[in-house]
Give the backbone structure.
Amino acid sequence: MTRSITMLFAGGAAAAVLALSGCGAGMISQTADQVAAVPGFSATVPVPDGGNIALRDAMVGYPGIKGYPAGADAPLQLRIFNDTDEPVTLESISSNDAASVKLGTVADLKASPTPAAASPTASPTGAASASPKASGSPSPAASPSPSAAAAPAKPVIQPGGYLELTPQAGQLALLTGLKKPLANGEGVHLKLTFSNGVVIETLPGTVVPVAPPLSLAPRVPVAPSPRPGTEGEGH
C-alpha cells in the first residue's frame, strides 16, 4: 500500500512538471517587457512621422541635507534621445518653479552639484551624437566633449542620437532663481519644447525629483537615556 501511494505521488509530480513546462513553451513571460525602476522622471512622446523623442532619468542635482533655499540655482541632469529619422532641435527648457532655465557648460554656469549615480548606459559626451535608439546604450565613439567650448543655446540632436546634460558630460541645464525652497523628496515642473512640435512636460501630480544622495548621511550617535530611578545616584 505504501509503495503504491509513493508511486502515485511521483507520477503526479512528473505530470505537474510537464504541465508547467507545456504552459510556458512559446509564451512571453509577464516580466519580459518590464524595465528597472529609475529615480528620475522619464517620458516618451511619439512623432507623427514615425519614431519618438524620449526624456530619460531627469533629476535635480542633490543639494545636501538642507535642500535648496528660495532664490537659489539648481542644476538639472537629464538625457534626451532622438529616435526619429530627422534632426531635432531642443528649442527651449522652462519651469514654473524657477525664473529661467539656462543651458551651458558646467564651468560657465559655475554649478558643482553632487550628482546622482550616473546611468550605466550613458557615456560623458554631452553632445548630440550617434547612438542606438532610446532603449540602447550610447555609442562610446561619440563626438568630443563640448566642455572646452560653449554649449549651444539650442542643441541639435541628430537622428538616432542623444543629448546628455549632466555634470559628467560637461554641460547641463540650470534652474535659476527657484521661486520657493526645494527640499529633498520634492521636485519641480519642467517643460521641453522641440523643433518638430514635440513637447515633453511634467503633468499635474508629476515632477522632476531631487536626486538621491550617492551615499547615506552619517548617523549621529544618540546618548542613552538614564534608567528610571537612577537619576541623581552618586558613585
In short: Helices lie at 2-24, 106-109.
